[in-house]
Amino acid sequence: MRAGAAPDTADLTATVETLLGVTVPVDDPDQPFTSLAGLALRDNPRRAHLIVSRILGKHIPVAPGDVLRGGALLGEAVRDAVDLRDPDGALVIGFCETATGLGHAVAQELGASYLHSTRRPVPGLPLRISFEEEHSHAVAHHLQPGLAFPLDGDGPLVLVDDELTTGRTALNMIAALHAQHPRDEYVVAALIDTRTAIEREGFERRAAEMGVRVRVASVLAVALDIPEDVLERVAAARSALPGPAAAPTGPLGSVHVHDEWWPQQRAATARSGMTREDTERLVGFAERLAGGLAGALEGSGSTLVVGTEELLHLPTLVGAGLAGRRPDLAVAFQSTTRSPVHAADDPGYAIRRSLAFPAPDDPSRPSRLHNIIDPSIVPPPGTPWSELRHEHIVVVVDAPAADCGPMVEALRPYAASVHVVVVDVERPFGSYPPEDVTWLLTDLSEVELERGTDDREEAIQSGVHYSEMLPVEFQPDASYLALFHEALAESARRLAVDTGVVGELLAARHEVHGERPVLVSLARAGTPVGVLLRRYYDQVHGWSVPHYTISIIRGRGIDEVALARVLESHPASAIAFVDGWTGKGAIQRQLTEAVAAWRESHPEHAALDDELAVLADPGGCTELHGTREDFLIPSACLNSTVSGLVSRTVLREDLIGPGMFHGAKFYPQWADEDVSRLFVDTVAAHFADAAADIAARVEDTTISRTVTWAGLRSLERIAATYSIADINLVKPGVGETTRVLLRRVPWQILVRPDRLGDLGHVLALAEARGVPVVPVADLPYSCIGLIRQVVP
Question: Does domain 14-52+244-422 have CATH number 3.30.70?
Answer without folding.
Answer: no
